[in-house]
Amino acid sequence: MIKLTVNKKKRSFAGHPFKRLLDVLREDFGLTGAKEGCGEGECGACTVLVDGRPVNSCLIPVCQAEGAKVETVESLGTPDRLSRLQASFLECGGAQCGMCTPGMLMTASAWVKGGGSAEPKAIRGALAGNLCRCTGYQHIVESVAKCVKKKARR
Amino acid sequence: MRGAASSMSVLRPRSAKEALAAYAAHPSAIPLAGGTDVMVLWNMGLLNGRTVLDLSGVSEWAKTKKTPRGLSLGALITHQGLQQDAVVTTRLPLLAQACATIGAQQIQNRGTLGGNIANASPAGDTFPVLAVYEAVVSVMGPGGARAVPFSGIFAGVKKTTLAPGELIASVDVPFLAKKPSRQLFRKVGTRLAQAISKTMAAGLLWLEGGRVEELRFALGSMAPTVRRLSAAEAYVKGRKLDAKTVEEACSLLEDDVSPIDDIRSTREYRLQVSKNLLRSFLS
pTM of the entire structure? Predict the structure, then answer.
């Protein structure tokens, strides 16, 4: 039995310890936000936070997440109550087809939470492991910068 | 074919002793650290049916210790952990720089120093730096512990000189006795992040009275394993770095490397850019 915390809820998983964290989240816990893109750690569509840090959940067997705090895009907000970051993506057109968006949001949320700057070059560096094949990077970077600025104003 | 979890067996040791015993009992097991290489192969369905030795619970191999000569870096320290270590960033800055170029932060948060070495890719990003810092790899196995100079850890593409049952415990990196006059880490790839390098260089240079006291220069992705440029290093020793000496060093570079044409680059490009890196470092 593998115990872990997912989106602040204690969960346990009784299946195979080598099942990927991505598949456990999607198939066993019903959290389908994280997507599988490349399966090689290149695209970042499967990004979730483990103990606050962005990781590729397609490269982690669930046994390596034992005792960890996992956060997925479902932890951010709800359609009625978007998080500041999600609202910024909506306002700036930071989502197009949506495939990369959950991963982008999770990497960006760690950036914002960690006190990252609104400087576009720094944001691009932070998001370097998340590919957007709509190539909508400009709006994504603007969305993150907007969120950082909103946070600073509060 | 995809990876099938149900076909796998997982060994989960909780100490170095348990890890070595488990590996001895299952010699064909695949050691797993951060998973950033192993899991890619597994996702492709190439490791189905195998036994995996998950080392992530071996906490004694995830620590940094000061030694009389430098730092002993636990094999399971992540690339991100190395960048966060204040002693690494101040005393071994090229290592922190190299770690910052590996994949992107998702990979740096998982991938480990020992895993990078055990994977033995010709393009391993930390290798040129560990070569010029003259690191020593501490290995543990059924025959006890042994220290392998970094120059002797690789046997070829994706091959180490580790004996059956041996695991990397730590990487011991001595501090430099004297501050170098110049230092360099440079990775050349298609983009800054995620790319596997076409060539990469690490260099340390000490000048004394206008002459070269010592040069250490290593190239990655330029041969089956990382290479120190021993011919160029020996040639410049004691010389002034005038244009003629620098050009001679650049042409001697070819003595120590054997770059190939592949999907990432060509032999010609790799040689030209590597020479440019050495030339600008020495000029």
Answer: 0.96
